Amino acid sequence: MVQFSRACLRKFGNLVDNLRLYVRGGSGGMGLPRLGGQGGNGGDVWVVAKKDVTLKRIKDKYPQKRFVGGAGANSSVRSLRGERGEDKQIFAPVGITVTTDDGRILGDLNAEGDRVIVAKGGPGGSRYTAFEPSKGQVKHIRLDLKLIADMGLVGFPNAGKSSLLTAISNATPQIASYSFTTLKPEIGKLMYKDYKQISVADLPGLIEGAHINKGMGHKFLKHVERTRQLLFVVDVCGFQLASQTPFRSAFETVQLLTKELELYKEELVSKPALLVVNKMDLPDAEDKLQELKEHLQNPDQFSDLLPDMIPKKYMTFKHVVPVSATTGFGIDHLKSCIRESLDEDAAMETKAIHQERLQALRFPSHEHL
């Protein structure tokens, strides 16, 4: 169901683009004074980039969000040098920035296999420390998905995304009457009177079957992951890629776009989203807009239009905004809606972070067990 009120805010349960974790290096092992034996060093904690991992999966698999390196072995008569503790690896998605709680950058994970050490293990006891071992480093760290833009334009070819980006921002993307004019993300900046800037990315054109890597396929969908919110753009009069492909109404287009995102990665459908209904300067546009709104209010009643591509979950749009990128109709209202949606989102994130920190202050003891 489409919601037009401010009450439709982001739910934090499904979409996770940042995560706060407790990490502690392993404690060192005891030294052996009478034989000069040295305890093993504690294991380190690493964050390692791996494909097919999401922050949501880390959160679900490790609800305590607590990672500790292995303890170093004590020195003994049989083994004067104690074995080193086992390192702990936290597998995280590619495209992550790892920071401390106060914002200091520890490293970036830009490719599979990239590694960042986040907590060093404590040294084992030796004659330099009176054979007493040390504890490992303790930190709270953050994993943040690096965003290419605040808003990502999602739409099939010829929905008018490039024209829309030109109309709302300072970008000058390549615009033509053939399908695939956008081959890489084009980033535009929306400027507001109070000097606030919002970045919008026109992403490479999506087609049916993108989830199985047709067309730009996965390349496109990876970019979608790295935008804070989505801006669906549909032609009010519908869409047909080529003469041999079926014609899709605006409503069908919305559901097909949703299904492509869902089939690639379900949590993408939980991103906050706005719907831009473009080309309102065309004949019969008002009638078609009303029809689209009716269908979106009761999508289940019209699901038979898409027998093979019904999404598990229909998109909930915070705003449905009719515009004409050609004439400029609705552009100022769209910019206001984008600003409002991102401001609401930022306020909710700030509140969630404050609550998390307050919880940690109230119940700190378990973290040092």
UniProtKB/TrEMBL annotation:
Cross-referenced InterPro entries: G_OBG (IPR031167), GTP-bd (IPR006073), GTP-bd_Obg/CgtA (IPR014100), GTP1_OBG_dom (IPR006169), GTP1_OBG_dom_sf (IPR036726), OBG_GTPase (IPR045086), P-loop_NTPase (IPR027417)
Subcellular location: Nucleus, Nucleolus
Gene3D superfamilies: GTP1/OBG domain (2.70.210.12), P-loop containing nucleotide triphosphate hydrolases (3.40.50.300)
Predominant localisation class: nucleus
Domain Obg stretches: 13-148
The keyword Flavoprotein appears for this protein: no
Gene Ontology biological process: ribosome biogenesis
Residue span(s) of domain OBG-type G: 149-343
Protein's UniProt name: GTP-binding protein 10
Organism: Seriola lalandi dorsalis
